[in-house]
Every structure is written in structure tokens, then in C-alpha cells.
Request: fold
Amino acid sequence: MQLIMPWYGWYIIGFVPLILFILSIQSTVKLIQPYNQKIMPSWVWLLLVPIISIFFWFIMTKDLARSIEMELRDRGIPTRATPTYIPGLLLAFCQLGTLLPTIKIYAFLPWLVLFIVYWVQIMKYKRIFKNTQPANNEEVNILSTAPLDI
Reply:
């Protein structure tokens, strides 16, 4: 039996996981304290904009890794430098490779594996942030402190 699907069916199959992935990133960034966020939660939706998303994968990967690292350090959780950066960067390069007709077929399978690995890593840090208390390191506003009695 041959699988018959309308042309838009394949877009829906690919679009749903991408939306869930973006929602995962957004909710993870929202759990990071604002002073540790190198990327705003709403910016992750730029991954849906066709031409911008090619470049934004690289920016988002770097900024998300730095945000996660800073938040982990702030919460006193030991971490290595820029967690999630390497799989995210490789994912971005594979994403770029899927646009080139000659290597498209070779870039898709690594892209799919890295997409899953990256998503799992982001979900791991989201779970960590949900289960630990954020540090109480509010930035000090020197204008709001009481004057010293001399």
C-alpha cells in the first residue's frame, strides 16, 4: 500500500516538532533570571522566519549556552563552559548544509540526530531550573540605598 499524503502534510509533520522545540527553548529562557538572559524568550520565534533563521541558529545557540552557563553558576550548580553550545553549533551547521543541494541528503540525518540531542539537553536544563531555586542576586541600585550617617 502506497502512502498518499497531500503536499502540505509533510510541512505539518515537520512544523509541529519545530513549534514544540521553540516552546521548549522559550520556556527554558523564561526560567533563567533576567540578568543572566543573553537572549530574550520571544526572540526564539525568529527560528520560523526563513532567511533570518539561517543566521539566527548561530546567534541563538551561543546566547542560549551562555545564559544557561551563567544561570547554573549563579545557582551554584557546577557546570562546564557553555553547555549545549557544541551540539547547537553543529546543528546550525547541519541546518546550513541542508540548504545546499549537493550535500542535503548527507546533512539531514546528522541534523535530525543533533536536533534530538540538543532538544534533550535543553529539556534537561529546563528541569534543573524548575527544580532548583534561583539565586537572590538582584542587581544593586546605588540610587535607592539609604544615605550613610557620617
